[in-house]
Each structure stands twice: as structure tokens, then as C-alpha cells.
Amino acid sequence: MLKWIDDHLSYFFTLPTIILVLAMIGFPLAYTLTLSFYDWGMSNITPMRWIGLENYRSLLFDERFLLAVSRTFAFTGLALVVELVLGVGIALFLSRGFAGKNLVKTLFLLPMVATPVAIGLIWTLIYEPTIGIANFILTKLGLQPLVWLGSQATALPSLVVIDIWQWTPMIMLITLAGITALPAEPFESAKVDGASPWQILWKITIKLLRPTIWVAVLLRLIDVLKTFDIIYSTTQGGPGYATETMNILSFRYAFEYFQFGKASASLVLFFAFVLTIAGIFIRLKNRYEVEY
Amino acid sequence: MRFNGKTAESIRSAAFYVVLIAILFCAIFPFLWMILASLKNMVDLLNMDKLFRFKPNLGNYADVFGKYQFLRPLLNSLLIGVVSTILAMLFGLPASYSIAREKKTLYASMILIIRIIPAVSFLVPWYIMFTKLNLAGTYTPLFLSHWLIALPLIIWIMIPYFESIPRELEQAAWVDGCSRFGTFMKIILPISSPGILTAGLLAFIFSWNNFIFALVLCTDKTKTLPTAIFNFISYTEINWSGLMAAAVIITAPILLISICLQKYIITGLTAGAVKG
């Protein structure tokens, strides 16, 4: 018996995980999909009512939902572009050897690992209109103070700044690791051929780093789309609906309004949205990479 | 102006450090600000002239544990982090070893899917399920949900690690009559300890930091630190210094771990991104 188990050990090593993962994920996903066709508020008195595609229809004609979709796009696009440019820029800047490089890497690590809810609160204080440092700096520079998270116009960009502060180090550290792994030969031969530093940067460094940067951006893309903690801990989607992304809105449908059917439909759409965008991105990456 | 090579080089070097310090300042300023604010009383906090000059007091920290009762959430977070990490190790280490040795890429991509699915989409069914199973209010929903955060991390970090171990090592043990299970326990796991440390640290950090699962699944008794600190803001008048003291308490352990073991944390966070 023991011998038989040992011979088939790989099943015993993988099956428990697969079963528990399916129980924790497979079943809930199927349940969410089912719920999305029902009207139900988790009440014992009113039973679940089959309403077909009504939840989806009402979402797709609901301005609040559509605005949340466009906000998710805007938030993700803005954060990703700035993080990419800054992250790669800082990595190239730090790529030369210097004293204290490890200390610098450690300090950059801190925003990524610190608890997001705590980060949200720290930034709420930084953005606080009367006692926050942000307005203190603006006034010192002779600029008009802002209400930051408190106004519909500036709330979302203010949150983007937090995300950039927290996650630029991720792109930076991955790119830096990529730079360390670069081969030396192309650089030596380019120098022999008399290439300018600028040409070396664009034609060799960036080109060789591209696969690494793609992966870094893909990992970020998936996470930015799903940003929850810093938004919910600072604004909970407000003021008004100004910072409601798809994730936040779905959460509110479920756990603030207890409209589980509508929340489920919104989650199914959100999941499809994330999968589609990640899929398009991976496609683009493959097509782009093949050319070279 | 013309400089000779040496002067130009030292100017460039000085400029490099100036820019470097500016960037670093941006990266760590919010943490400094958090610590400063946590040591002030409300009057000093409201007075911008006392930005850096003030009489530090530790009263806020006493309040966090006394008045705002943070000890229980602190212990809860610790318990949930440790238990879910150990559980995820029990499942994840053997699974990732099998995936690494037998090229089960299908399972590997299944694990990746967990990363892509928005966490809220589990929460609705879980909430209903745990309520119906009468598990709401116990630690079980939190152990299980945090297990699910830790598992993909551990598998993702451990697959490349196990792949890098030469097969000859196991084959030699099998020839000597060691069972497959024995080989895994006595040979593979001990030499993988740096990888296991990396995976364990990250799993614990992600569990400690997680907010959304506890937000829905916890009760007063099982509240974790992030939810406790979040409830803190709903007090009518925000006690900013107390809040910042709470923020220090929740981030300090993580920041200290990261500073002491930065090599492992960076390896873990960037795992799979660079094919070196």
C-alpha cells in the first residue's frame, strides 16, 4: 500500500490542492454566474427570483455602471503609463554601480510591502485640506490649495498618485533585475562600433529589456484593474460616485446594497473585462515580440 | 567652462547623488510623515509651524492599545497570517514540486488564474456559503480565504526553485532505496529552505496586508488589523495622531521584516518576471 502511494506520489501531491482550490474557487465562480441571472437580496422571506438577463441589461443601460467602466480604464491607463515611464527611468538611472545600492533597493521596497489600508490613511492625512502636507507645499509654492480626495474632479487623479507612489518600485525593481541579467557582449561590440550612449540606450538596452518590461507591465495591469484597498480605505468610491471603479461598484452592490444578483452580474462583466484586457495585452506582446 | 575629466566625473557623481536622494525622499516621505504625526498631539499636528519641532509623546500608542483596543486585532492578524501560511505550505510545496518535476503547465496556469480573478467575485458566494454553514464569526473563513492568497504565491515562487534543483540528486537517493516521499522530505525540502523562506515571508505579508476578505468575513471577535484601523476612521471626529500611531503599528513589522530580509522579498516579488 505504502509502495503504491509512493509510486503515484505526484497525484497525492497535487490532488488535495486541486480539490480545495476547486471548492474555494470553481464552486463560487459557478455560483456567482448563476446568481447573476437572479434577483436576490439574501433575504429568507423573498426567495430568489429568476430574471434572466435583466441584471445585465440594467447594468449596461445604467450610467453609473458605464462611468465605473470608463473610470477603471482611466485609472489603469494613467497609473500604468506613469509607472512604466518612471519605473524604467529610475531603473536605468540606478543601473550603474554605486555605494549603497542595496540600501536604495530596500527603501524602494517599502511602499510595495506596506499595508495598503495604512497607506490609504497616511495619504488621506497628506491630502487633508487644512492640515495635510500636500496643500502646505502648494501654498508655499504660491499655488492654490486643492481639496484632493474631497472633490469629484481631483479625487481619482489623487488616487492615481497613491498607486504610482506605491507601485512604481515594482516596475523599477523588475527592470533593474532585468538589467543585471543582460549579457555584456552587445554593449562591448556597440562601443567598438562607435555607437553613441543614446543609441546604446534605445537600440540595445531597451530592446534587450523589452521582454522583462512586458511581464512587469502585465503583472501591474492585472493588479491595477483590480485596485480595491487604497480606494475603499480612502474614499469608499466617493465623493458621490467619483472614484467608483468596477471593483468598488461591484463590492457596493453586494455588501452595501445587498443586491447579490446585480453584484454578481457586475462581477461577471468585470471578470470578463479583466480577462479580455489581459488577453489583448498578451496578444500584443506576442505579436510585437515576434517582429524582432 | 572646461573641466578636466576628473572634475567632470565628480560633478556628475555629485549630481547623481542629489537626484538619487530626491527620488528616495519621495519614496519614503509618507512613512516619515506617518511617524512624525504619530508622535504629535492634535494641537501640534494642526500647527504647520511645528512641522518638525514638537515635543514627542507616546500617548497615541498607549491609546491605540488602550482606548481603541488594537491588541486583539493584532493577535488575530498574527494568528491568521501564521496559520494560513503554514496551511498553504502544506498544500503548496508538494503541489509545486510535482508541477516543477512533471511539467504540469495546466495546473500552473490554473494557479495563475487565481491571480486574475477579482477577489470580490469569491466574496459573494463565500459570504453566503459561510453564513449557511454557520461558520460566520469563526476563524475558519479567514484561514481559508487567506490560504487562497498564500497558495498561488507559494506555488509561483517554488516552481522555478524546484526546477533549479538537479534531478541527479533525487535519482541518487532513489538508487539508495529512499522512497519518493522520503526524498522529498529529507533531501528536496532542506536544500530548498531559502526558497521556502522567501515564499513563507511573502505569504505572511500578503495575508497581514489583506483587507477585503476580512472586511466582509470577520466579526468583532475575529477582526484583523487592516479592518480595525479602517473602522477607526468612522469615529465622528478623526483622531489623526492616533490613526497614524495605528498605521505605524500595522506597517512596522512588515517594514522591519523587509529591511532585514530584503534579498528574499525582492526575489519573491519579482519571481517569474526575469528569466535569468
Secondary-structure blueprint of this entry?
The complex is a heterodimer of chains A (292) and B (276).
Chain A: H1 2-7, H2 9-35, E1 38-39, E2 49-50, H3 54-60, H4 63-94, H5 101-113, H6 116-127, H7 133-140, H8 155-180, H9 185-192, H10 197-225, H11 229-234, H12 246-255, H13 260-290
Antiparallel strand pairs in A: 1-2
Helix pairs in contact in A: 2-13, 4-8, 4-10, 5-8, 8-10, 10-13, 12-13
Chain B: H1 5-38, H2 42-46, H3 59-65, H4 71-102, H5 105-116, H6 120-132, H7 140-163, H8 167-175, H9 180-191, H10 193-209, H11 212-217, H12 225-233, H13 240-260, H14 262-269
Compact summary:
The complex is a heterodimer of chains A (about 290) and B (about 280). With about 290 residues, chain A is mainly alpha-helical. Chain A has 13 helices and 2 strands; from the N terminus they run H-H-E-E-H-H-H-H-H-H-H-H-H-H-H.
How would you describe this protein?
The complex is a heterodimer of chains A (292) and B (276). Chain A has helices at residues 2-7, 9-35, 54-60, 63-94, 101-113, 116-127, 133-140, 155-180, 185-192, 197-225, 229-234, 246-255, 260-290, and strands at residues 38-39, 49-50. Chain A is globular. Chain A has 292 residues and is an all-alpha fold. Chain A has a two-stranded antiparallel ribbon with strand order 1-2. The longest helix of chain A has 32 residues, at 63-94. Chain A has one domain: MetI-like (MetI-like fold, Orthogonal Bundle). In chain A, helix 12 (246-255) packs antiparallel against helix 13. The longest helix of chain B has 34 residues, at 5-38. The model of chain B has no long low-confidence stretch (mean pLDDT 84). Chain B has helices spanning 5-38, 42-46, 59-65, 71-102, 105-116, 120-132, 140-163, 167-175, 180-191, 193-209, 212-217, 225-233, 240-260, 262-269. By secondary structure, chain B is mainly α. Chain B folds into 2 domains: 5-59, no CATH class; 69-234, Orthogonal Bundle (MetI-like fold), CATH 1.10.3720.10. Chain B contains 14 helices and no strands. At the A-B interface, helix 1, helix 2, helix 4, helix 5 and helix 6 of A face helix 1, helix 4, helix 5, helix 6 and helix 7 of B.
